[in-house]
Design brief:
Layout lengths: L3 H22 L17 E2 L8 E9 L5 E6 L2 E4 L1 E6 L2 E9 L5 E9 L2 E6 L2 E3 L8 E3 L14 E4 L19 E2 L2 E2 L1 E2 L14 E2 L4 H6 L1 H7 L3 E4 L3 E2 L10 E5 L25 H8 L1 H20 L3 E6 L71 H14 L8 E4 L9 H18 L4 E4 L16 E2 L2 H13 L16 H12 L4 H4 L3 E3 L8 H4 L7 H4 L10 H11 L5 E5 L25 H16 L2 H4 L1 E8 L2 E8 L2 E8 L5 E6 L9 E10 L2 E3 L4 E4 L3 E6 L3 E7 L1
Parallel strand pairs: 11-16, 11-24, 14-15, 16-19, 19-20, 20-21, 21-22, 23-24
Antiparallel strand pairs: 1-2, 2-6, 3-4, 3-7, 5-6, 7-8, 7-10, 8-9, 12-13, 17-18, 25-26, 26-27, 27-33, 28-32, 29-30, 29-31, 29-33
Helix pairs in contact: 6-7, 8-9, 8-13, 13-14
């Protein structure tokens, strides 16, 4: 006798058999198709406000998975297939935001297989550190996203006005007279801080055509404010541009007598840097520089040194520059009654006058550490400075913050200060950027209420340097185990990128060189040393321009703001500071490297996916990388062969949205013979191309 229960059991058995049959017919799980990120390709809106609803998108191969879940706050939310386009299905979920940061990852189910997807890509186990991040209300300036920046160390860029040059014996710096270097092309000496070449803001104005022709979108200046050193990280007066960079309209007084060892007798210097006519004229020149940059579509970022000042500073005045200057209060070193006494921490309260018992940053008495916790007045003064320079009439477009994590005497206060700093700057100029110098994990400061972003050492400069050269960024070490180590490269990139939300990552300063490290071109020679051990000429020998061009290709195709350190584009070499601070070689540029930079910057600007597109890992091997930059408007592949021999590779181009059948064209290719724009084409068959890469080469390919 047949019962109802037996019929149900037969039905269930039939369904199970059908499911097993269907499962055997399902295409193999296509892991390569899985993708999501937090660009505007995959979340909308990309920079939401608190309490917005955000549509989050996840990509799979067409008809390839059973379910996609979004996991947020421990809850699993079913995503729905919203569209199919080409070879891909797109699943979406609308997430209701609150005020606080939202983090999430994806869970993919197909048959009995379960896996996860976070900022690292496809993984077997989740770790909340690598969750995707959305910070409601956090925005970074649109103009800075992917912008090409150019760092200028002013004393070494161009001397446009010889009347404002620092004069030999104008004053003492760290115990000896300063020196005017007469030969622009002379390499820096080991003790370089008191050597001046004469570069100034007029020189920058004179070279605006050059910067515009190169394709520069943002100028980042090393410090410009009154300071006795050529680097100017020991600020003397935050209110004014240094007249040696600006204008000297009243030039009176005498050089320091040879037998005199006191700067209070350096009357020429005192007049130059305290005379209001010189200071105001210098500020006016800066206004002209910003106006001219803005007229050409360029932005200007200032360097803010707020952790410490200099011993010359008018608040401290250890050199007694301001002791008898008209219109200035007594400095804290000079008088116990100074209005600035609380700006510093003195350990001996009975030494005045001329109390030298103050805290110096890392023990340097030339760099008095500012004592914010004990002086609300100091805090308000510096916040006023922060507002002043991004407001009319100066209108700078933001701040780069020197040793920003060191400010204050505790992490709690540090975070409190930068929160106030952000409010002050953004209220004065909502479109200004705040980027900080920082080594190590940046996450605590990138929560949307302090810095916008950082100089990207950990997630750009260091991984690129290790992979392409095996060198430490100061040229202090060579690691053969890291040279060409693609696994280490991708691991570092994925780990450190997890510290950024997308708005921070898109404006991160991606440098190959800067004033604190060796020049990248010098790192290609694998020489471990400094000028103190090897001399300057060794930095020029055995360099590999082809490796340098590979690095520039990566710099111009990575997420963030590629930042050229002045002279890199002209072939300047140098070991670490001070050798990396050589002058720009006007008239002696490497013409090929210069043309290469112009062309690759132009290509970056013409192909928006290289600025704002998603980035996807495609392939890697020893000394070989392949990745894509893509959005709906365009797709590019970037291939790098750092081997000393040619290689042939098969690359799956469909992963970045290219068609299964078609052609790709080389926008630019570099190799040991130089670079080429001849547009070689490659056929796409079954979603892949086969390409032979010359030794030490890189190529950017775009679908036609």
């Amino acid at each position: 006798m047949i019962t109802l229960m037996s019929l149900d059991l037969e039905k269930i058995k039939l369904l199970e058999n059908n499911r097993q049959y269907i499962s055997t017919m399902r295409p193999v799980f296509n892991k390569r198709a899985l993708f999501s990120d937090t660009t505007d390709n995959y979340i909308s809106p990309a920079e939401p406000e608190p309490f917005d609803k955000v549509t989050i998108k996840f990509r799979t191969a067409k008809n390839n998975v059973d379910r996609v879940l979004l996991v947020h706050k421990g809850e699993r939310h079913m995503m729905y297939k919203a569209e199919t386009e080409g070879s891909f299905d797109y699943y979406t979920f609308e997430l209701q935001l609150e005020e606080e940061k939202a983090t999430y990852h994806f869970e993919i189910l197909t048959g009995r297989l379960k896996c996860f997807y976070d900022v690292r890509g496809l993984v077997q186990d989740v770790n909340e550190y690598y969750d995707f991040v959305i910070i409601p209300g956090f925005k970074t300036p649109k103009w800075a996203k992917g912008a090409v920046m150019y760092q200028i160390y002013v004393d070494r860029f161009c001397n446009g006005d010889t009347t404002n040059d620092v004069l030999t014996s104008e004053y003492l710096y760290i115990g000896k007279p300063v020196n005017r270097v007469e030969d622009w092309n002379r390499y820096p000496q080991q003790m370089d801080v008191r050597e001046f070449y004469g570069g100034d803001l007029q020189g920058v104005l004179d070279k605006m055509d050059y910067l515009q022709d190169l394709g520069v979108e943002v100028i980042y200046f090393n410090p410009l404010f009154v300071s006795p050193s050529n680097h100017k990280y020991d600020i003397q007066d935050y209110d004014y541009i240094d007249p040696h960079f600006g204008r000297i309209v009243m030039d009176e007084g005498e050089l320091l007598p040879e037998q005199n060892q006191q700067n209070n007798e350096a009357t020429r210097y005192i007049n130059r840097v305290t005379n209001l006519a010189n200071l105001e004229a210098s500020n006016e020149l800066f206004i002209r520089v910003v106006e001219e940059a803005h007229r050409r579509g360029m932005r200007v970022i200032l360097d803010g040194v707020f952790n410490h000042c200099g011993s010359f500073n008018k608040w401290m005045d250890r050199e007694r520059i301001y002791e008898n200057a008209v219109g200035y209060e007594k400095g804290a070193y000079v008088s116990a009654d100074s209005p600035y006494r609380d700006y510093f921490q003195f350990h001996d309260q009975n030494q005045w006058p001329y109390n030298g018992s103050y805290d110096g940053w890392w023990g340097h008495d030339t760099l008095p550490k500012l004592n914010y916790e004990n002086s609300e007045k100091l805090t308000e003064y510096v916040l006023a400075i922060a507002r002043k320079w991004v407001s009319p009439p100066y209108n700078a477009d933001g701040w780069r913050l020197d040793v920003a994590a060191d400010l204050g005497h505790s992490q709690d206060f540090n975070h409190q200060f930068w929160q106030k700093f952000r409010r002050a700057v953004k209220e004065a100029n909502p479109d200004a950027i705040i980027l900080a110098e920082h080594y190590g994990n940046t996450r605590d400061w990138l929560q949307g209420n302090e810095w916008d972003t950082v100089m990207n050492y950990d997630a750009f400069m260091e991984p690129v340097t290790w992979f392409l050269t095996g060198m430490e960024k100061h040229s202090d070490d060579f690691r053969e185990d890291l040279l060409g180590n693609a696994e280490s490269f991708w691991g570092a990139m994925q780990h450190h990128t997890a510290s950024f939300s997308m708005p921070s990552w898109q404006v991160a300063m991606n440098e190959l060189s800067n004033h604190d490290h060796s020049r990248f071109l010098t790192r290609t020679n694998h020489k471990v040393g400094r000028i103190s051990t090897m001399g300057s000429e060794a930095a020029n020998r055995d360099v590999n321009k082809a490796v340098f061009m590979e690095a520039v290709v990566m710099q111009m195709t990575w997420i963030g703001a590629p930042t050229i350190y002045y002279g890199d584009e002209a072939g300047v070499c140098g070991f670490t500071d001070p050798d990396s601070r050589r002058t720009y070689p006007w008239g002696h540029e490497d013409k090929e490297l210069l043309a290469f930079h112009r062309d690759i910057i132009r290509l970056r600007r013409e192909n928006d996916e290289l600025r704002t597109g998603s980035l996807k890992y495609l392939d890697s091997d020893y000394n070989y990388l392949a990745y894509g930059r893509f959005h709906k408007g365009g797709q590019c592949l970037i291939l790098v062969n750092n081997n000393d021999h040619p290689i042939t590779k098969r690359v799956f181009v469909w992963e970045v949205g290219m068609p299964k059948v078609g052609r790709v064209k080389a926008l630019i290719q570099t190799d040991e013979t130089g670079y080429h724009l001849d547009g070689q084409e490659y056929e796409i068959k079954a979603g892949k191309i086969v390409i032979e890469l010359p030794k030490t080469s890189a190529v950017i390919l775009k679908n036609m």
